[in-house]
Write a structure and sequence with these properties.
45% of the residues lie in helices and 14% in strands. The chain is α/β, with parallel strands linked by helices. A 7-stranded mixed β-sheet has the order 2-8-7-6-5-3-4, with helices on both faces. A hairpin with an 8-residue loop joins strand 11 and strand 12. It is globular, with a radius of gyration of 22 Å.
Length: 390
């Protein structure tokens, strides 16, 4: 006799006991939590563009891109985006998770070492797991540790029978920090590994025209050495979709072996046309990028001045560290009651409970001041025991 539902109930009870229970809720209030970094998801010009396209495209793509789900606009966007980030070719897929997951599963196998930053996104870690490759964690942003692991792999496998792949994010979504890319490229030149970089949280915000952190930190010559770059339309573009930029040979390979691409219904046809317009807008949003980074600087300074603990974030993603899951949930609940949408992030997503404050270009200085004042008020309430954990 199956005890499935009894087992499920025990798991849920355990999750609730640890203050880790999650629910799908609709929240209101000032946005301090989404990934709509440049405000394009609600941009009036984007909405006007959408309305002009609704009569031109079907509701759905109706099939995978290899059957009947491919549209000229998808091919055109891939070409335009690849040119934008100085790549040879690009492949549009359903979302960023699919891009990472499918890419790594397609290029790794049991005869590979994949070296992954310990805090890489779940889509990366799941791609490594499903590929059957030998996963090698290196400590977060610790390229000296990565080098020691590469040296150890060379000692164990001097004939290079195992392919080496290194995967990192350019901007870590829960900590707001970035690798030392010049040093990482030096290691690539020395060890000859395949390099995958996920620019999801940096696209639109950093680099000339919002091209990403790689264009801020590296020469174009070094960027060309990166084998695969992963981007998303689900953040600064305000849409949905994932993009893999690589060589034409790499794109051909993915089209023929990447299972989530081959066997998934293609993205909505209208998305690629909206993405081309969003790209046009993003390239010209220098004042919005400057405003966002100024707000970031001011908020970090104000939080530290008021005695809050934050990570060594270098970006518009500002994690405010807290002592427990219960405390994080209490802060998140009270902020939402006060009209400020900030989310509590808890293990296992992160090792330390926190509020993930994610800034966007639509926010004002008044919004920032309201957030800091609310945090101070909640801290006083929490200290007096008046914040409910219910």
């Amino acid at each position: 006799m199956s005890h499935h539902w009894e087992e499920i109930k025990e798991k849920i009870d355990s999750i609730k006991e640890k203050q880790l229970f999650r629910e799908t809720k609709t929240y209101q209030g000032i946005d301090f939590c989404s990934n709509d970094y440049m405000g394009l998801a609600t941009n009036a010009r984007m909405l006007e563009c959408y309305r002009s396209l609704t009569d031109l495209y079907p509701f759905g793509s109706t099939a995978s891109r290899l059957v009947r789900g491919n549209y000229d606009s998808m091919n055109m966007f891939e070409t335009e985006f690849a040119n934008f980030v100085n790549g040879e070719a690009a492949l549009l897929v359903a979302n960023g998770f699919v891009a990472n997951f499918g890419l790594i599963d397609s290029i790794a196998a049991s005869n590979c070492y994949v070296f992954t930053d310990r805090l890489n996104h779940a889509s990366i870690l799941d791609g490594i797991r499903i590929s059957g490759a030998k996963k090698k964690y290196y400590n977060h942003l610790d390229l000296q540790h990565l080098q020691r692991l590469l040296d150890k792999a060379n000692a164990e496998d001097p004939d290079q029978k195992y392919k080496r792949i290194v995967v990192t994010e350019s901007l870590f979504s829960m900590d707001g920090d970035s690798p030392n890319f010049p040093k990482l490229l030096t290691l690539k030149k020395q060890y000859g590994f395949v390099l995958v970089v996920d620019e999801a949280h940096a696209l639109g915000v950093y680099g000339n025209e919002g091209k990403g952190i790689l264009f801020r930190d590296l020469s174009l010559e070094d960027i060309q050495l990166i084998d695969y770059r992963v981007y998303t339309l689900g953040k600064s573009f305000g849409l949905e979709g994932g993009i893999i930029v690589t060589k034409q040979l790499g794109r051909d390979h993915l089209v023929n072996v990447m299972r989530p691409f081959i066997f998934s219904t293609a993205p909505l046809p209208i998305i690629s046309k909206l993405a081309m317009y969003a790209l046009h807008l993003l390239r010209s949003m220098e004042s919005e990028r400057f405003h966002l980074l100024e707000l970031t600087r001011e908020l970090k300074q104000s939080l530290v001045t008021n005695g809050f603990a934050i990570t060594s974030t270098e970006s518009h993603i500002i994690p405010l560290l807290l002592h427990s899951e219960a405390e994080a949930m209490a802060y998140g609940k009270r902020l939402q009651e006060m009209g400020l949408d900030v989310r509590a992030i808890r293990p296992p997503t992160v090792p330390t409970p926190r509020l993930r404050i994610s800034l966007n270009a639509k926010l004002t200085r008044e919004d920032i001041n309201s957030l800091v004042s609310a945090l101070v008020q909640i801290r006083n309430e929490y200290g007096s025991g008046s914040v409910s954990f219910a």
